[in-house]
Amino acid sequence: MFLGSANNFEKVVKEYQAPVRRLFLNLTLGDEMLSDDLAQDTFIKAYTSWSTFRHLSSTRTWLFRIAYNVFYDYKRSLHPTDDIETAVTVHPQYEIDTNLKSDLYKAMKLLSDIEKICVTLALVEDQPIKTVAKITGMNENTVKSHIRRGKEKMANFLKANNYG
Amino acid sequence: MGRKVNGQQSTGNDMVSKFLKENKQTVTDNGFTERVMETIPSSRVDWNRVLQVVCYLIVVSTIVFGGGWKMGTDIFDGPTIKDIALNLGQTCLYAMLLVVLVAASVLYNFKDGLGNWLDELGDVLAQFIHTTKQDVGSGI
Questions:
Q1: Which residues of A touch B31 (CB under 8 A)?
Q2: Of A90, A110, A129, B13, which is most buried, counting CB atoms within 10 Å of its CB?
């Protein structure tokens, strides 16, 4: 694939906008405007750094990796001392947001950022653990731990809300 | 979204996976791609187009300055069989060069489609392996 052409890049955006925006929707607990801003940053970075992409992974994986970095940078800009692996809240506005759009975001709210990322990539986007590890730069066992903890938290929420 | 599954006995893991699948958002484009395309840097060199132009210039130069035009007109002007045979080697060379250049240009353009296809194949294989692992109980 060659991204020097704007037409070709447009195809890439059209094809991958859904998974990238869905990842950000889960990370921002349904904030569509913020999600779109972060997704837009992701695709612009992809366009400008295409020459560094060596096709050692799929385009989807590469875009998820950029999205992860964009989100990391965004988090750092909000709270320079926070670490994405330990931070629980995404944005101050969510602390007072008691009217989240769906149970999905209510359940996601209980997860740390890195748990949200791992759970979304593995269980929503069906990415293999190995790929999630590559995207997040963590080893596979750490990814599995984050997913297990995320699932436990979500399971407790679901049980408390009459699911299952 | 948020459909509740009452009275169903399932493990926590199955319940979460099922919940996430049922609540997977359908994200429609709604002008997102257009907004992205409006903001990408426009000064980037379109190397694809540059290569195309270079290929076409080489082909045209070869024909005009390499005697290809004259050979063509000679042949069509009704030369003898001997003349055609003499020119055949050189004509073949030009024809081959032309084919190679055009093929290179076409391949370069269709490389996009090939790349996309390979990406998709990789994704499908990865998901198949992931699903198979889950099926045999070695998943998380």
A1: none
A2: A90
- Using a CB-CB cut-off of 8 Å, the residues of chain A touching B12 are 151-152, 155-156, 158-159, 164
Which residue in B15, B112, B130 is closest to A8 by CB distance?
Answer: B112
Task: Name A22's Cβ contacts closer than 8 Å, sequence gap at least 6.
Answer: A120, A124, A125, B24, B25, B27
Q: Of all helices (H) and strands (E), which one includes residue A119?
A: helix A113-119
Mean pLDDT, rounded, for B111-132 = 62
Contact A39, A109 (CB under 8 A): no
Which segments of chain A have a pLDDT < 70? 1-5, 80-101, 164
Query: Which phi and psi (to 5°) does residue A80 adopt?
Result: -55, -25
Residue pairs between chains A and B whose CB atoms are closer than 8 Å: 156
> What is the dihedral angle through the alpha carbons of B31, B34, B35, B37, rounded to the nearest 10 degrees?
160
pLDDT tens-digit map of B13-67? 788 998 998 888 889 999 999 999 998 876 555 666 677 778 778 877 777 776 6
pLDDT confidence of residue B58: 80
pLDDT digits (tens, 9 = 90+) for A48-65: 887 777 777 789 999 999
Structure tokens at A161: 């809300």
Residue type, position B87, single letter:
N
Q: Which two tokens stand for residue B90?
A: 């050189």
DSSP per position, A30-62: T-HHHHHHHHHHHHHHHHHTGGG--SSS-HHHH
Tokens coding A142: 């750490």
Tokens 């948020």 locate to B2
The size of chain A, in residues, is: 164
Determine, for residues A104 and B20 on separate chains, whether the beta-carbon distance falls below 8 Å: yes
Asked if A158 contacts A111 with a C-beta cutoff of 8 angstroms, the reply is no
